[in-house]
Specification:
By secondary structure, this protein is of the alpha+beta class. It has five domains: 47 residues, no CATH class; 180 residues, 2-Layer Sandwich (Threonyl-tRNA Synthetase, Chain A, domain 2); 223 residues, Bira Bifunctional Protein, Domain 2 (BirA Bifunctional Protein, domain 2, 2-Layer Sandwich); 69 residues, no CATH class; 91 residues, 3-Layer(aba) Sandwich (Rossmann fold). It is 38% helix and 24% strand.
Length: 667
């Protein structure tokens, strides 16, 4: 092990490639400022401004420049933290003079440009805890001092400075950072939001400024265009315009699916359900409400109650009213409510109730498995459940359909023998890809999340599970990357990251290996040797939350659902009232053929009718004039302006739409 600088590690490459801003040693990224402990066999690679690691360095450094600009413009503002994110960066500020405005963002950007043009180097210093405290006390940065106190004893404390000699800006930071501010010429501040210090509603409310940054102005322009397109496709906007879903204050964060939205939603469920028989799944229906003992057995009562909804039985109510301590507990709940302590309220309620609404299906599936002794000949047993689930999400994180309190999953669990695990995993991968390719998602990335430090089970079990997951991907010829230590505490898992039509990546679908629940529920099957054996449990979902998937699918398609899924497949529009009789007849004929067709026989002008149908994202508009009446035909127009069809007979169009209206075959 030797201590070296990035220059010593990279040598001439630093001089030849001016885009190098860091170095990756044994999988960890460092900047060019930091001395590195290097093992003799460590892998060493440069980090450039145009790769993923370089982008994170650029974004984190830009957050520092933004905070510098804010404090120059708004003296007295305190800084907290400013990390890079998947979409850019943010920095949280305690700004006594009030919230940032849109005009403030423009002013901050102008100051950032001035700082960047100075090409000021970033400098790293390591200081003692006492020195750091003294520095930030002098600067009146109380949040930084709180962060210093949270750093474990013995860990190095580093500072980063940038700027001209007379105006150095300093931050408590681990890094890494770019060599100088000149690398930060492609950035944009995008929004402001409120955020509690350390994410705790009991703490001060801060102002969070979001921004993004890229290695080149061209990449930034491309990203900003994507943001504009995303605004047009926002599922909350389209959900209202297309009358797909709604919310109401009487059921916070619990969506109402309107007729058109319910059609799409049920169509997605039916698509998976239709494949289950061929895939060997059996569907069950399980209760919504359980005695808390179920969740005590599963472990959720001890670890998950802050995300659960509770109820109280009549017997438990009688016990509570007879308890003299009830009044004290109610006072504590009222105090927690006044202070906005949602977690505290949940914890207090936990002691009063004996019933919970289920947040997931897996414990109830364990009950079904255990209802009788099962034989190894019955395994693998694949059990599916579209049951409604309820999870308490805090008001600050709910978001349209993407984060709700009431939802359905295309949930299924596979109970199998250990030696069946790899083949079941391979079958699921094939099933998953078939569905997503059929739905128009062609770019899928896979992460294999491996054992965390704190985990259940033996090393042998983890070796077997991780090996099966890796081998299944290798045999399928699918590229993947490891996510070290990011597995669940009970087993490793796949994360499927799916790219949508405008290039955004979403984590959709999962497969998780679980040894814990079979142990906690003491599940057994009779093996070929006549002895009892513990099954392995695989948790799997293709869509995941149907509500969240629908939000992404709406944005992926821009509301232009394919003909097989569209609530209304075609609309007959007449040129004038003279064609209304045939227009109504054409609609009746197509509906009799099983198609979802409506007609617009109003006296409105034809252009208005067509425009309204296109705004409703209806796949086909069937224009009917005098010629169409004479020839018993229709003039189909696509919702896409450049895809109009030739005039065709009513029967021919029905045949075409019938073919398009069939759900796609799984790849």
């Amino acid at each position: 092990m030797s201590r070296q600088t990035a220059r010593e590690l990279l040598g001439e490459r630093l001089d030849k490639d001016k885009q190098i801003i860091g170095v990756k040693v044994a999988g960890k990224v460092y900047d060019l400022h930091t001395p590195i402990e290097v093992a003799a066999d460590a892998t060493i690679a440069p980090v450039r401004s145009d790769d993923a690691d370089g982008l994170r360095i650029i974004r984190h450094s830009t957050a520092h420049v933004m905070a510098d600009a804010v404090q120059r413009i708004f003296p007295g503002t305190k800084v907290t933290i400013g990390p890079a994110t998947a979409a850019g960066f943010y920095y949280d500020f305690d700004k006594p003079s009030g919230p940032f405005s849109e005009e403030d963002l423009a002013t901050i950007e102008a100051m950032m440009a001035t700082i960047v043009e100075g090409n000021h180097p970033f400098r790293r210093d390591t200081v003692s805890r006492e020195e750091a405290h003294a520095l930030f006390a002098q600067m009146n940065e109380s949040y930084k001092r709180e962060i210093i106190d949270s750093i474990p004893a013995g860990e190095a404390i580093s500072l980063y400075r940038h700027g001209a000699a007379e105006s150095l800006w300093v931050d408590l930071c681990e890094g890494p950072h770019v060599p100088h501010t000149g690398f930060l010429k492609a950035h944009k501040l995008v929004s402001v939001a409120g955020a509690y210090w350390r994410g705790d509603e009991r703490n001060a409310m801060l102002q969070r400024v979001y921004g993004t940054a890229f290695g080149t102005p061209g990449d930034l322009r491309k990203h900003l265009l994507q943001i504009e397109e995303a605004k047009k496709r926002d599922h909350r906007k389209l959900g209202k315009e297309l009358e797909l879903f709604m919310f109401h204050e009487y059921a916070p964060a619990m969506p109402f699916l309107l007729p058109k939205g319910a059609h799409v939603y049920n169509g997605l469920i039916d698509y998976i359900r239709s494949a289950y028989r061929g895939e060997g799944y059996q569907e069950v229906v399980t209760p919504q409400i359980f005695d808390k003992r179920l969740f005590e057995t599963s472990g959720h009562w001890a670890n998950y109650t802050e995300n659960m909804f509770f109820a109280t039985s009549e017997d438990r109510l009688a016990e509570l009213f007879a308890d003299p301590a009830l009044g004290s507990t109610i006072e504590k709940i009222q105090a927690a409510r006044r202070s906005g302590d949602e977690s505290g309220i949940q914890e207090l309620l936990k002691g009063l109730v004996d019933i919970a609404v289920k947040p997931m299906n897996c414990p109830s599936h364990c009950l079904i498995f255990r209802q009788r002794r099962r034989s190894y000949r019955e395994l693998p047993w694949r059990v599916a459940d579209f049951g409604r689930l309820h999870r308490y999400e805090r008001g600050g994180v709910v978001h349209g359909l993407a984060r709700v309190r009431s939802f359905t999953q295309d949930d299924a669990h596979i109970f199998c023998q250990p030696e069946q695990m790899e083949s079941e995993i391979s079958n699921f991968i094939r099933f998953f890809y078939g569905v997503y390719l059929a739905l128009g998602f062609s770019k899928i990335a896979i992460k294999l999340a491996t054992r965390p430090d704190k985990r259940l089970g033996t090393d042998e079990q983890w070796d077997m599970a991780e090996g099966a997951l890796e081998q299944a991907l290798t045999r399928a010829g699918l590229p993947f990357e490891f996510a070290p230590k990011e597995g669940a505490f009970y087993g490793p898992k796949y994360e499927f990251h799916v790219e949508d039509a405008i290039g955004r990546s979403w984590q959709l679908g999962t497969l998780q290996v679980d040894y814990a629940l079979p142990d906690r529920f003491e599940l057994e099957y009779t093996g070929a040797d006549g002895a009892g054996h513990r099954p392995v449990m695989l948790h799997r979902a293709i869509y995941g939350s149907l509500e969240r998937f629908l939000s992404i699918y709406i944005e992926h398609t821009g509301g232009n659902f394919p003909a097989w899924l569209a609530p209304e497949q075609a609309r007959v529009v007449t040129v004038s009232e003279k064609q209304n009789e045939y227009g109504a007849e054409a609609s009746r004929y197509l509906r009799a053929r099983g198609m979802r067709v409506e007609s617009d026989l109003s006296p409105d002008k034809l252009g208005s009718k067509i425009r309204e149908a296109r705004l409703a994202r209806i796949p086909y508009i069937l224009v009917v004039g005098d010629k169409e009446v004479e020839t018993r035909s229709v003039s189909p127009r696509s919702r896409d302006l450049d895809k109009n069809l030739e005039v065709m007979s009513l029967e021919a169009f029905a045949d075409q739409l019938s073919a398009e209206g069939a759900p796609p075959s799984l790849a």
